[in-house]
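Appendix B. Raw example, untouched.
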Amino acid sequence: MNDEFKGKSGKVKVMYVRDEDGGQKPNPRTGKGGRPAARQEDNRRSGPRSARNEEGGRSGGARGDGAGRGTPARDARNADRGRSFGGRDNRADDNRSFGDSPWRTVSRPPVADDSQVDDEASNKPVIDPEQIRRQRQEETRVYGENACQALFASRPESIVRAWFVQSVTPRFRETLRWLAANRKAYHVVEDAELTKASGTEHHGGVCFIIKKRMGMEVSEWLKKADTKDCVLALEDVSNPHNLGGIMRSCAHFGVKGLLVNDASLLESGAAVRTAEGGAEHVQAISGESFASGLEAFRKAGYTIVTTSSHEGTPLAKAELPAKMVLVLGQEREGLSDSAFQQGDISLSIGGTGNVESLNVSVATGILLAEWWRQNA
């Protein structure tokens, strides 16, 4: 590559690089071109036009030099602000993100011998794996516009952090004002960054990190139960989209309690988004075991209703009690033998027989609609 180039006038121009002591370094490839700092004032005409005219167009006086550098006084002011030639603004280090994790980073833990740690490295935030693990156990991501709107309306205090794309902010004005007033971190970001924070492309333009709700004990639920109460019991149903559809049907037909093995499954981002706000109207219920939970409801006067695709009373002919626990299992495996044997009534949904069974979320909607029709 040629180190020289010609301007419009045809004259050869040479570029110089300033070194730390104010002089100019020679070209590193040719070894030519270096000059002492004292002679640089002669090269005034190579400076920018604005620098040559900075004192009202006078031909004399202080001017900018050929590399576009400021005056010594300006350099001193820059030094006072913590900036220097060849330096780097360290403020950017404070805002770095580590990977795609939306969870917080924590400061480096103290060490026994400070001399073993570089001063600059010791001031940088690092990821504490144990802290991240605890946060992920206690917190979860919720995304989707309807889901986040419903969550803010019912339990805004559970929000830890939020992300928005610019296009949805007009519909979240109240949320943004509340987050700012309560010193909750929120970010207006591009779509790609929100995809990283939410972990999905189907984020709907908004994502919250929230504190998880814990499952309620069966005994606590029974203390506040109404005379008409349908509780849904899900045995080993874990698909988040099925759970989201089930919660949406529960909210529509007034079913407020879900007995599950793992309450955190109802808080997954995909399940809450699919529920379209319905997740805020249901409460996870947990027992020592699934079977013990069913037994506790039976002792409290609930009728245990199981389902089967091959045997049982047709739904159209069944009389559904006002207080019941409707038990459903996986779409493929169905209920386990132990859970099926606990049933007081077994129901089936009639159809053509062209398929073996219905999707568990679809079957839930049909069964709950009939309970609502008979008892609402």
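End of appendix B.
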